[in-house]
Hints:
The structure holds two protein chains of two kinds.
Chain A: H1 5-19, E1 23-26, E2 30-34, E3 43-48, E4 52-59, E5 62-67, E6 72-76, E7 80-83, H2 86-90, H3 97-105, H4 112-121, H5 128-134, H6 140-149
Antiparallel strand pairs in A: 1-4, 1-7, 2-3, 4-5, 5-6
Chain B: H1 2-32, H2 39-52, H3 61-76, H4 85-99, E1 112-116, E2 123-126, E3 130-134, H5 135-140, H6 144-159, H7 169-180, H8 189-213, H9 217-234, H10 239-251, H11 259-264, H12 268-278, H13 281-285, H14 290-303
Helix pairs in contact in B: 2-7, 3-8, 4-6, 6-9, 6-10, 7-8, 9-12, 10-12
Amino acid sequence: MKKCLYPVSLFLLIIIGFSASEILVVKVEKTALRTEPRFFAPVKSLLKFGDQVEKMTLQEGWFQVKTLQGLSGWVHSSALQPRPSTLALLTKGPKTEATATEVALASKGFNRQVETSYRQRHPEIDYTWVERMLGFKADQAAIEKFLKEGHLGEWKEAK
Amino acid sequence: MKGKRFLAFLGLSLLLLAACSTINEKGKEILGKMDQISEKDKELITKTGEALRSSFQDLTDEEEYYIGRSVSALILSRYQVWNNEAATRYLNLLAQAIALYSDRPEIFAGYHVLVLNSDEVNALSAPGGFIFVTRGLLRLCQDEDTLAGILAHEIGHISARHGLQAIKKSRLLEAFKLLASEAAERLAPDKMARLTDIFEGTLDDIVAQLIERGYDRKAEFEADALALKTLRRMSYSEQGLILFIEELEKRKEKASKLEGWLSTHPDPEDRLKRLQAEVSSEGRGLAILKIRTDRFRRVASAWK
């Protein structure tokens, strides 16, 4: 009888493991799924705001995740936030803090519509330079070259 | 006999694993169909979520970005932009490299820097990654390590959401309450008008803090500590930030151009004491490399 408990325990452990699997949501406009937990690792795929991934492990600020398409890789934790499990979401009982912020992700708030409404009231406020500023974006290769040249970060010992 | 039991155990375990795999696939299927949950459920979830929000920490990265965009537009209504392509490219490259080593490398739409054409010595950071530095401040910097220290400090403010802390709690609570009361996809016109009022008040709270009052001492010291941590990770000399504050301290009695900085930052002497206590012996000892100073000087000749 005792021996029969082994597979049952194993089954329960797996079930617990599954139910503990956590879904994370991309909270920034876009981010990259990388092959290793570092910014200069090759990019496997791009993720966009609202995309959901399954958390596998967390290592020094990087989540190893799996996408819905089954692609696994690493995403920095500052680009992701927790989402309650599917079951919690469907049982209409979200009660945790994580749930509050997660749900807010998909909800109304201080968003594009509010900015539009504000700008209609204040047509004198000029956003031209704000838009231009958002276009100032150094690409990853330029940042890597800059760091290498300056003996900085991962290249601090570079000759 | 033992072997048979083991085989039975293994067989049953494999069966159970297969069952779990099916469950797992089913879970993913449900997950993939998240968009298909009923409108009623969506409404309930949204309302509950909004009702649970209670502080600036509950604002999402997207909301932080939209607040930051308008705060930036208001800052730019008070200053002229210095439109120098080489300087802007260098500052953005530097800031975006630094951000990767900060506590918050990813932010809704990234970190961006713009130079303000003002002789005043000042740096401002709006929520959501918008950083503004004046030409007057750039002129005080002697090398890249110092400028890196200043930008790391501004990124520290953004990373710790110091700008959002200025929003009056009552305003935020009213916004969250209003959002919780409305389940429809789009807000009704009267509610949108009220939310816009609150948004406007929110911008006023932040702009007043950034331009008139400045962050409190606790936030400034926290941004300094975050800057030191970032500089250490990158191997920039921590001495750069200290040299800059020393320069401010030397000039504070006579320089009217420092008024903006002094009214919005703690006394340089206090900051210096703190920084000197926190700087690591390793960070202090790191050399300000010539190669970095050389590339800095090539760009700095434009703002001198």
